[in-house]
Design goal:
seven-stranded mixed β-sheet, Rossmann fold, single chain, alpha/beta, six-stranded parallel β-sheet
Length: 322
């Protein structure tokens, strides 16, 4: 009799656990996700990162995921407004694409999970002293930082007779300054004279580029969102002046550069999307370290190199527009 009673209790327990498992699975199946996206500005690199992010979430959740995707058109105050509105909408997660977007999202909420992408250095962006690779709190994401010392090496490799280098970037972008400082130090160690030129926004890009071209043999532009959205204006000045530009990412190179050591922003976005899936399924974002793109590639712009009569080494890959 006791045996029958024990078996009945075990059976009841198994059935209860099974019911809970089925219920949890059904609940997960019925779960819908509302994702907010704040992208700083429209240009090739950031667009690719956003698309990669969305593709992963759509592949994972199908129609159960919807996006509120907004673009700040390069304006930090607009990014702040966008992030404030996303928090008011109570989205399940925010993608902050580019440093000012991340800063705006971080200021808007310390509860909703935030994933950054196309961020060069999180310690600089979020003013974290002695950054150890994990932000903590409600923030994590991916970095687009390619080895800056190797980018400095490219300048010397491609232009061994150059004596002066002008570094050009937007003064409003903290991570651009970080990259510029690192590359400047690396180039000066190689004996080059380096001058930094900054523009405040798109309105003075052309005039500052002209000043930089007039005083230097080569220019360097880091991964800078304002520069990326103004490559035509930069190229219209630098190309007639016959001043080559080594840049920090592929999108800028496509518009005005001769070469880059660059990452793939679509793949970076996909990595960020995979992180989002883990967060939405319950992983603690506060313990997730920043992830980096592995294996940056040396690329060159065939059209601009031909125009300037530049021959690149065999280990460079020709850029092909999609």
């Amino acid at each position: 009799m006791k045996l029958r009673k024990m078996m009945a209790m075990i059976t009841a327990g198994i059935l209860a656990v099974s019911a809970l498992t089925v219920s949890a699975a059904a609940e997960e199946e019925d779960q819908e996700y509302f994702i907010g996206i704040c992208q700083l500005v429209q240009h090739e690199a950031l667009d690719a990162a956003t698309q990669g992010f969305k593709d992963v979430l759509t592949e994972e959740f199908g129609d159960a995921v919807t996006f509120d995707e907004q673009n700040a058109a390069g304006d930090t105050s607009t990014a702040t407004t966008i992030c404030t509105n996303l928090v008011a909408e109570n989205v399940d997660l925010i993608l902050a694409n580019a440093t000012p977007a991340l800063q705006s999202a971080a200021a808007a909420t310390n509860e909703i999970p935030i994933l950054g992408t196309s961020i060069t250095e999180y310690g600089v962006a979020l003013e974290i002293d002695d950054f150890d690779g994990t932000v903590g709190g409600n923030i994590s994401g991916t970095s687009d930082l390619a080895p800056l010392d190797q980018q400095a090496d490219m300048v010397v490799e491609l232009f061994p007779e150059a004596q002066s280098v002008g570094i050009l970037y937007c003064s409003a972008e903290a991570n651009s300054k970080y990259q510029a400082d690192v590359v400047k130090a690396a180039l000066e160690e190689k004996g080059l004279e380096v001058t930094v030129y900054t523009f405040s926004d798109s309105n003075d890009v052309a005039s500052v580029t002209g000043e930089a071209c007039s005083g230097n043999d080569v220019l360097y532009i880091p991964t800078d969102n304002t520069a990326a959205s103004c490559t035509e204006a930069i190229n219209n000045v630098a190309l007639p002046a016959k001043v080559p530009i080594v840049v920090g990412e592929e999108g800028i190179m496509a518009g005005c550069g001769v070469a880059t050591l660059s990452i793939n922003y679509y793949d970076l976005g996909r990595t960020t999307g995979e992180m989002a899936v883990r967060v939405l399924k319950g992983e603690d974002i506060s313990t997730m370290p920043i992830e980096y793109f592995q294996g940056p590639v040396k690329e060159y712009n065939p059209a601009i190199c031909e125009e300037l009569g530049i021959t690149v080494p065999d280990d460079y890959t020709a850029y092909e527009a999609e």
